[in-house]
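Query structure, 119 tokens:
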């Protein structure tokens, strides 16, 4: 096939694609998706804290109860326990110190470690 033939096919394909997109027949509606948030499926045994580097870090020394609840395995009771511990003992000196909070053990600490910071 000559370069002119290839150019003609390219232009025809481009025109067809733009007509399909413009008419809404080809996936155009995906750009304006208004449904519920999509779930991300993780391999078995992989903590959510390792799911994406885009997940925000949570400061143990500044986070609110609501922010702490975004951590895997931390609900309202554990989040409040972290804040109460911080108020009683002062700022956390290490990430590992969160293990001293009632209701948080080594397993939970390993799940959330990647998302914690002291800043």
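Result returned for the query:
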């Amino acid at each position: 096939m000559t370069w002119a033939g290839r150019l003609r096919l390219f232009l025809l394909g481009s025109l067809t694609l733009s007509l399909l997109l413009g008419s809404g027949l080809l996936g155009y509606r995906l750009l304006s998706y208004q449904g519920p948030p999509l779930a991300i499926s993780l391999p078995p045994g992989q903590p959510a804290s390792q799911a994406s580097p885009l997940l925000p870090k949570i400061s143990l020394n500044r986070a609110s109860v609501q922010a702490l609840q975004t951590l895997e395995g931390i609900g309202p009771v554990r989040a409040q326990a972290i804040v109460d511990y911080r108020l009683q003992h002062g700022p956390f000196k290490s990430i590992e110190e969160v293990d001293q909070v009632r209701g948080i053990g080594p397993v939970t600490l390993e799940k959330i470690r990647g998302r914690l910071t002291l800043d």
